[in-house]
Structure formats: structure tokens, C-alpha cells
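Contributing new records

If you add data, match the layout below exactly. Sequence lines come first and carry their own label; structure lines follow with theirs. Keep one chain per record. Anything else will be rejected by the validation script.
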Amino acid sequence: MSVARITEIKASSIKSFDDAIKEGVQRARETLENVKSAWIQDQEVLVDSKGKISEYRVSMKVTFVLKE
């Protein structure tokens, strides 16, 4: 029987939401073992004074399986 745990993380990118997700998952994999999935809970953008998007942010829940 496997037991999984979920941790919530935030990640950001100046390129895109897709890049922010990839960065978040990659960073989680550096710290956590057996990462199995990520659920994107929320997305937001930061807008600079000229009205341009300056940063993409995601909140995600990462699921990983605990060692036996």
C-alpha cells in the first residue's frame, strides 16, 4: 500500500504560465522524492506601470509518494 502526501507551492516566471509550472515542478523534484502529479490551483499575473505583464505566477499542489 502506498501513502501519498500533498504540499502546496508557488512558482513564477517572466515568460509564461507554462514556464512557471515547469519551474515549480522541477524545483519540487529537487527537494521531494517520488513526485507524481501537480494540480494548478490558481494563476495570477503581475502588471507593470505600463500595463504590460511582468510576471506569471501559479499556485500548485504537488503530490508525492512517501517511501515505504
